[in-house]
Structures are given as structure tokens and as C-alpha cells.
UniProtKB/TrEMBL annotation, chain A:
This is Iron-containing redox enzyme family protein. InterPro entries: Haem_Oase-like_multi-hlx. Gene3D superfamilies: Heme oxygenase-like (1.20.910.10). Residues 1-35 are annotated as: Disordered. Signal peptide: none annotated. SMART domains: Haem_oxygenase_2 (SM01236). The lineage of its organism: Bacteria, Bacillati, Actinomycetota, Actinomycetes, Kitasatosporales.
């Protein structure tokens, strides 16, 4: 038996990690306030072996949990659990002071989501509502807008927004796998296998999206549009990281995943129409969305019948969490849709930083 | 092989699947599970594209854009 050295004291082991593919990985984003200033300052300037001076729980609670500073800080802290940032040592991932700050921000984020959602345990009603397609939606719908009146610069902005998720597509959902058992686990893994290309690297959905970014002449680096993405966009991804990383929120992660898969196929269809209308109907542009029309028609069936069904048969007490995951997804997607459609309808840039070759380049967003 | 018919929805078949169409052409999907359209409304026939879903004309539905067009 090999002796394992026991490390005493507060210092995590320092293992400088060189991120994979540094050339295809954008540097850390710029801060948006005191919280992100402190977190990014630590990651890019401090020693991961030393304790940090970070904003207190009280100071974190004083910042809008859905605002730019909180959401960026959460996104950056979550990123340490994905692929991190070039030049930032991987050992920051488990630094206790960063985890403490993350926990404070997560509490504010989750409270804000719970305050703004109805809750309840009527899962059938939630799913039934998602399974009806409005012909002329009352609330702003990004894919309806883009399919009906969208123009190329708006489509490109949309791709930039969504890149903060699609370049890590299905990664947050992988965290729930060890928290599931039996059929729920088997079926969720089958969906994930499909998301990750069915064993083929060139078909990984994140890769299909990177190919689309490149085709649209956009930065296709991992994290390449993080500075441009506003809090309303980051929040949609932070929800996945929050529910993926917390076993206590596994029901919410499953609810989120199901809601996303159910609503994707029709909106992906409209995205193909939008690309065609803008003169970009070739497979190099449409492949990502055509794949999602077909794939997600399958995934929603598997998520509803096999994953949610089996999970709640085993753990019926998770019903309220599944409902919460669906409602929180709806809430954050509606906020993002309102932001995008309002901006575009008024002829404004929807990103924090205009695309370098967009119609508003060189102006303040 | 296991097949499941979703009420009002597609026929779920374990993949890979080959479907022979009326004109004799054969299309193949190597997905782990395939959703075969039985309502004939799909624009990606023979694969389901969720066109079987009910439509509302009052424009109401919660959570329009999925998290993962997402």
C-alpha cells in the first residue's frame, strides 16, 4: 500500500496547469464591478497557495444578484470547474475563499430565481405548457423575431450571445450523472452521448457551434464573446452551472434540461429559416440548427418519459425541484428574449461590446 | 428491439434505424434512439421535428425559447 502524504493547513496544493489549446481559448474577461474585480484580480495576480481578501458575504449580498457584476463573477468562478482561463492556474478551482464567495453569490442568485418563479408541484401543467407552440407569441421570441424580421448582424449577435453556452454545450448537465441511478441515469447519459457527437469528435455539438461561428466570421475561441455577453445572457448559463454543481439541485438540473430540449426543436427550425432568409442557407451555416431539430425531437421524449419519469418514480420528493428548474429556465430565457428583441426592434446593439465588424462597430453599446 | 409510441407524437425506435420511403429511397439515422414521424406533418420526414405539437393562437405559452437552441 502506498503512503499518501497528508497536507496540513489551509493551502491547497499548487499545480500550475496549462489549459489545453491556449490559442483557441480567450483570456479572462474584464471586470464589471467590485466583485468581479476582486475575483479576477485574484485569478490573474495572486498566488493560489495563499488566502485571499475577497468581498464579504454582506458585501456580496449588497450587489444585485442578477446584475452584471454578480453574474460575471459567478460565471468566472464556475468557469474554473470547466476549462478555466489561459494563464490561470487550475489549482484555483478548489480555493476555499473563492468557493466561499461563490456560495454567497449562489445564495443570492437562487433566492432571486425563487422569488420570481411560482413554484408548486404541478409538473404535468408545466410540461403541457411547453408542448404547445404559439403561432404568434405574445411575449418576445428571439427565433420568431429572427425568422420573421431578423437581419444578418442580429443573427451574428445572437450567435455571440449563445456562444457562452454552446461552446460548452451539455457540459453542465454531465455533472448530474453521478447523482442519478437506474433508468434516469442510463437515459440521461444516452442524451449526453448524442450531445457529445455519439463518439465522433467532429459531431460534438460544441464543435458544430464553433464551426458555425467560424462560418459567420465570428471569434470561435472558447470564451471569445464573454466580454460582450451581458448578465441576462450569462444568467442562463449560470443556472445550468448552479444546478449542475449542486447535488441538492439535481431535480432542478433535470427540469432545466428537459425544458431546454422540449423547446429547442421548434426554435431551431425558425433559426434555420432565419439563416436562409439572410442568405446563409448553406449547410455550413445551418448544420448546428438542423441537427438540433432532429436530435431534440428525440431528446425531449427521452427526457420527459425516461429521465424525469424514472427520477420522480425513485424520488417523488424532487417534483418541486424539477418544476423549479423548468420555471427558472423559462424566466431567464424570457428575460434574455425581451432584452434581445427590445434592442433589435429599436435598432440597438444587444451586446455589451459591438461586434468589431458589425453595423455599430466603434460605438458604445 | 424496443419501440414506443408516444400518444400524439412520434414512434420511438432504438437506433440505428433505416426507413424505406414510398419512392424506394432509404434514409438512415444512427442516433441511439430515433423519433419516426407518424403524423406526416414533419418537414424532416421521416424523422419527427415536433410539428405534431398543438398550436395556440392566443400567443400564450411560458418559456418560449429553450435553454439550448440552445
Amino acid at each position: 500500500m502506498t503512503a499518501i502524504p497528508v497536507r496540513a493547513g489551509p493551502r491547497p496544493p499548487v499545480r500550475p496547469g496549462a489549459p489545453a489549446q491556449p490559442a483557441h481559448h480567450a483570456p479572462p474577461p474584464r471586470p464589471r464591478g467590485e466583485l468581479s474585480e476582486a475575483a479576477l484580480g485574484a485569478l490573474t495576480g495572486a498566488d493560489p497557495g495563499e488566502p485571499l481578501r475577497l468581498p464579504s458575504a454582506r458585501e456580496a449580498a449588497a450587489v444585485d444578484p442578477l446584475g452584471e457584476d454578480s453574474q460575471l463573477t459567478l460565471y468566472v468562478l464556475y468557469e474554473l470547474h470547466y476549462r478555466g482561463f489561459p494563464g490561470v492556474p487550475a489549482s484555483w478551482e478548489w480555493h476555499p475563499d473563492l468557493l466561499r464567495l461563490r456560495g454567497d453569490l449562489e445564495r443570492g442568485f437562487e433566492d432571486a430565481l425563487r422569488e420570481r418563479t411560482a413554484g408548486g408541484i404541478d409538473l404535468a401543467a408545466e410540461l403541457d405548457a411547453l408542448l404547445v407552440e404559439p403561432v404568434h407569441p405574445q411575449d418576445p421570441s428571439v427565433s420568431h423575431h429572427l425568422a420573421d424580421t431578423g437581419v444578418w448582424w442580429q443573427l451574428r449577435e445572437y450567435l455571440a450571445h449563445r456562444s457562452v453556452y454552446h461552446l460548452k454545450e451539455a457540459d453542465p448537465h454531465a455533472w448530474v450523472i453521478p447523482r442519478l441511478t437506474g433508468q434516469a441515469k442510463a437515459s440521461l447519459v444516452a442524451v449526453e452521448f448524442d450531445e457529445f457527437g455519439g463518439g465522433r469528435g467532429e459531431r460534438v455539438h460544441a464543435r458544430l457551434f464553433a464551426d458555425l461561428l467560424a462560418a459567420a466570421d465570428l471569434d470561435d475561441r472558447y470564451g471569445g464573446h464573454l466580454d460582450a455577453a451581458p448578465a441576462v445572457t450569462l444568467a442562463t448559463v449560470n443556472l445550468m452551472s448552479l444546478t449542475g454543481l449542486h447535488r441538492s439541485l439535481r431535480g432542478a438540473l433535470v427540469g432545466h434540461f428537459a425544458a431546454a430540449e422540449i423547446t429547442t426543436a421548434p426554435s431551431a427550425r425558425r433559426m434555420v429559416r432565419a439563416l436562409e432568409h439572410s442568405g446563409h442557407g448553406e449547410p455550413g451555416f445551418t448544420r448546428f440548427y438542423t441537427e438540433h431539430i432532429e436530435a431534440d425531437a428525440v431528446h425531449e421524449q427521452v427526457m420527459r418519459h425516461e429521465v424525469i419519469g424514472a427520477l420522480l418514480a425513485a424520488e417523488p420528493e424532487l417534483t418541486a425541484d424539477v418544476v423549479f428548474g423548468i420555471q427558472a429556465t423559462g424566466l431567464l430565457e424570457e428575460r434574455l428574449a425581451a432584452h434581445l428583441v427590445d434592442a433589435w426592434t429599436a435598432g440597438r446593439v444587444s451586446l455589451r461590446v459591438p461586434l468589431p465588424d458589425g453595423p455599430h462597430a466603434g460605438t458604445d453599446a | 428491439m424496443r419501440v414506443r409510441l408516444d400518444p400524439g407524437g412520434p414512434l420511438m425506435v432504438e437506433g440505428p434505424v433505416e426507413v424505406e420511403l414510398e419512392d424506394g429511397t432509404v434514409v438512415r439515422s444512427d442516433r441511439f434512439q430515433c423519433a419516426v414521424c407518424v403524423c406526416r406533418r414533419s418537414r424532416t420526414y421521416p424523422w419527427c421535428d415536433t410539428s405534431h405539437r398543438g398550436r395556440s393562437h392566443d400567443g400564450r405559452r411560458r418559456g418560449d425559447e429553450g435553454g439550448r437552441e440552445r
